[in-house]
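User: tokens in, sequence out, please.
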């Protein structure tokens, strides 16, 4: 707002001189007219006609001044004097949609790096009643990728908007529906992902997925489960291809990020490298919180996060398990079970929960595994501790972790004769899908019936083929009584 003293028109001595001259002239003319009227025969009539002319002139001047004034009308606080903007443009500073007739979109388009190219896009968007909420620019060797978060009228078709953007100079335009979580500005979102990664090494794949949008992330170990090298690792600086990104995994191996529908930009590659470098500098880490709960018979056991530092305790539990239990867990030769442990306990491939007794012995393991775009749950409970509700407790906690990670579904692979696992999955009270092939049962639980805590991941689906490492053990559906942390 402009102060009143600054809004006044500056006076000058010339203006004062002109006003004095005009006043002197008016006095002389008025004196002449008065003498003429008094001495003339039609003096009274001239006075009446002069009064009427004066009133008419004043009325015309008032009408003309209002019609051509540049002051904003009373109902236009913006001072533009134009017609009211459409609801999508008059959105205000908050993130709440102005009306139910608007939707949020993410749009990315490539323009020439020339003056006025962005202005042309903004003009087209304004012409269609589209409000720009956020804007990011990704410089390229030739041109610039502009990424928008838009609030558009619900009746506006994406095809119409794409044609308008193309006419304004945009190419390779990509649009996708957005939600309220996308209203968080990019620096805030990146700092939040960095904080999650700093607290838990298992968050790195999830952070990369949320940073880069809909993509598929694979963690390739340096050697396969059979001990053979998986190929040349990515260089320290990483490799950026058009739709594939390869990063050096600090734990060994390579992190491969694929996004077939949209090429990566150098800016996105730099952000991903920064997250991986942060993970490398911090080293192995998992949250140290634990939860103590009571079994139906009164024994207290502890559930905590586990990683590769628990490898010796996990192998000792394997030695105490029967061949039948290990066979249900690994769907293969029992002697190969130990080779999976280092892979399963790595936070790069998911999250692991361990159940230990008061003496510190590990008696059960629960795994939440990132399988590309899908998420798998797997359990192993020592024989002497089965049928006590441990498996159901672990399964419920793994599903809660999947919901926190924003997964849409989880699947479990077991044998069709494993009634305990089936009962535990049914006890989740979630919609279930069943697939069975040659005695192998795949049960998929859809988590979309309950709100996910963290958005940004892609939907998971039941696999068509059970992976070799998809393993489960018999569990019990009885729920233990929690006693606190």
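Assistant: Sequence out:
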């Amino acid at each position: 707002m402009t102060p009143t003293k600054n809004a006044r028109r500056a006076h000058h001595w010339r203006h004062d001189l002109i006003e004095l001259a005009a006043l002197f002239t008016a006095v002389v003319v008025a004196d002449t007219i008065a003498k003429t009227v008094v001495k003339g025969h039609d003096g009274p009539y001239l006075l009446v006609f002069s009064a009427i002319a004066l009133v008419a002139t004043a009325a015309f001047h008032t009408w003309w001044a209002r019609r051509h004034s540049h002051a904003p009308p009373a109902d236009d606080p913006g001072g533009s004097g134009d017609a009211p903007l459409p609801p999508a443009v008059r959105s205000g500073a908050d993130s709440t949609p102005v009306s139910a007739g608007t939707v949020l979109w993410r749009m990315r388009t490539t323009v020439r790096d020339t003056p006025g190219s962005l202005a042309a896009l903004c003009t087209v968007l304004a012409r269609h009643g589209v409000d720009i909420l956020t804007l990011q620019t990704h410089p390229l060797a030739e041109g610039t990728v502009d990424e928008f978060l838009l609030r558009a009228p619900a009746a506006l078709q994406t095809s119409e908007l794409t044609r308008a953007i193309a006419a304004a100079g945009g190419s390779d335009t990509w649009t996708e529906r957005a939600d309220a979580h996308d209203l968080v500005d990019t620096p805030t979102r990146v700092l939040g992902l960095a904080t999650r990664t700093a607290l838990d090494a298992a968050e790195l794949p999830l952070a990369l997925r949320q940073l880069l949008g809909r993509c598929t992330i694979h963690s390739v170990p340096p050697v396969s489960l059979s001990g053979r090298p998986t190929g040349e690792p990515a260089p320290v600086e990483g490799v950026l291809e058009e739709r594939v990104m390869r990063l050096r995994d600090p734990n060994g191996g390579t992190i491969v990020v694929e996004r077939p529908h949209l090429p990566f930009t150098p800016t996105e590659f730099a952000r991903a490298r920064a997250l991986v470098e942060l993970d490398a500098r911090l080293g192995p880490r998992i949250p140290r919180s634990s939860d103590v709960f009571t079994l139906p018979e009164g024994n207290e056991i502890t559930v905590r996060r586990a990683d590769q530092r628990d490898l010796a305790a996990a192998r000792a539990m394997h030695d105490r398990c029967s061949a039948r239990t290990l066979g249900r867990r690994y769907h293969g030769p029992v002697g190969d079970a130990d080779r999976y442990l280092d892979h399963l306990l790595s936070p790069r491939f998911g999250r692991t929960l361990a159940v230990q007794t008061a003496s510190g012995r590990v008696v059960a393991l629960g795994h939440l595994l990132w399988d590309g775009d899908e998420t798998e749950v797997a359990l192993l409970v020592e024989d002497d501790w089965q049928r006590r509700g441990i498996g159901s407790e672990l399964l419920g906690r793994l599903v809660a972790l999947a919901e926190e990670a924003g997964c849409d579904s989880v699947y479990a692979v077991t044998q069709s004769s494993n009634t305990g696992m089936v009962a535990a999955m049914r006890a989740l009270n979630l919609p279930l899908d069943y697939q069975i092939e040659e005695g192998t049962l795949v049960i998929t639980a859809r988590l979309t019936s309950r709100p996910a805590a963290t958005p940004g991941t892609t939907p998971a689906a039941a696999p068509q083929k059970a992976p070799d490492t998809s393993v489960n053990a018999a569990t019990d559906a009885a729920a233990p009584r929690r006693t606190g942390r």
